[in-house]
User: Fold this.
Amino acid sequence: MIQFDRVSKRYPNGKDALSKVSFTLPAGQLTFLTGHSGAGKSTLLKLIMMLERPTQGQVFIEGQNLNGFGNRHIPLLRRKIGMVHQNHQLLFDRTVFDNVALPLIIAGYARSDIGKRVRAALDKVGLLDKEKLNPIMLSGGEQQRVGIARAVVNKPPLLLADEPTGNLDPALSEEIMDLFKDFARVGVAVLIATHDLSLIARYNHRLLTLREGRLIHDGDEGGHHGS
Amino acid sequence: MAANKGPRNATPIKANRQKPERVRRVAGAHSARTSLQDRFRSWRQHHQDSFRDALQRLNAARASSAMTILVIAIALALPAGLAVLLDNARAITRGWDGNAHLSVFLDMNISEQRQQQLARDWQGLDNITRTEVITREQALAEFKALSGFGEVLEALPDNPLPPLIVVYPDETDPVTLRALENRLAEADGVDLVQLDVEWVRRLHALIELGERLISALTLALAAAVVLVVVNTIRLAIESRREEIVVVKIVGGTDGFVRRPFLYSGFCFGFAGGATAVILVQVALWWLGGPIDELLALYNSDESLTAMAASSLIVLPVFSGILGLLGAWLAVGRHLGDIEPNF
Assistant:
């Protein structure tokens, strides 16, 4: 699904954000990405979203080399990626329904289709009864679930999450994690960037650890962060 | 080829049923889950939505929208109004060119009979199409009626106006007229020959100058309209920064992001142009009375003509295009600055 092949990213200010990072994320797998602030987590996500381009190396998504993508192709790539943000990135000038419908409108779904898909996504995150509300009236956990519904509404093969449980208490975090696990179970490649070690410790999933731009650990969480 | 042949031989109903299926299958294989037809429909839908959205936002920020629209309207009403006045001036003077004539003032002691005689004589000369006799009494009557100095004239013991023969030449080029003027000036009993064409020329030159000035003014104010819209749209982009970020993250194309702003720009321009039309019409209505009076005093049958019917739609559309241009510039300049970040 995603493949990084010796990817390096140096910003114009000379800072090396990533150095020769290689890994592969298969479809249907849930993977954690962790590391301290500035270790390169955000840069890695940005490369996948094509918000940045690598200085060296190649990123493949669904077998396609992103280096060969022009700016014109970026929107089509992003439609294959559901992105969940720590601060939700919801629009407060419209209803929950309209927030979730946005990716479908952009991708050009028929009106009749949009209603069905939005309600299916809202149903999945348990907010079907809140579709007419403004997201500002929802709690933090509910807002995050709206963000997830929006990320998955067009059934992307890839789901990225940047600190999805950042502001949530453990019980709510668990609900969100359960959703992610469900998506992985139906074949979505899920990559969760987080420095919430307790969250990582509670699940036995693959873990990628970055330190100063280098991938220093790739494998089961188990022994590495045990107890 | 073979695929085409099949339906042609088959019944029309069958052909209709087969074709969409084929298209859908091809589209489905290449792209995601949306057919081309769906995409076109949704593209059209987004245009409609963008347009409605632009109008709603215009309405939501009524006060500031009204300001922008008024600025555009005033900027456009100025050259448009001047152009209408100039059109009128041109229409009025158009007849005058052909009416170039020489006023031949005779000596005061020339009798009316002699005056008639001279007029008849001249009628036969080269380059003269006709002559017109205005006796001293006629001149006095006309002067009284038109000048407003009637009472003053009453007070005078004698009619101070000389007998006049108006000579209409068949050509209006300066050389012929000048020659004719000299010939008539030498005739017996002629006091003064006045060539009444110079001032028409001057007027034409002035109108020409006016046209140039209006063109320059139009250009300058059109640029002002574009800049006003650039600024308005820039602020709109700034206030919708979050939305733009989200749209870009979920895969909105530049066109998708741009579209609502372009519609906004067009709406501002169009509304401004329509308001300009109203302003010009009100101004013309307000000026109409005095101008008609003025024209009557100049002995003209013309009355103030309003804007051409075509301008009523041309001006808003032209203005709408200016708005679109402004929005395009603003979007091109500022949309690239807004990129998602996390």
Q: What stands out?
A: The radius of gyration of chain B is 35 Å. Residues 1-32 of chain B have pLDDT under 50 and may be disordered. Chain B is about 75% helix and 5% strand. The beta strands of chain B are 102-106, 128-134, 164-169, 190-195.
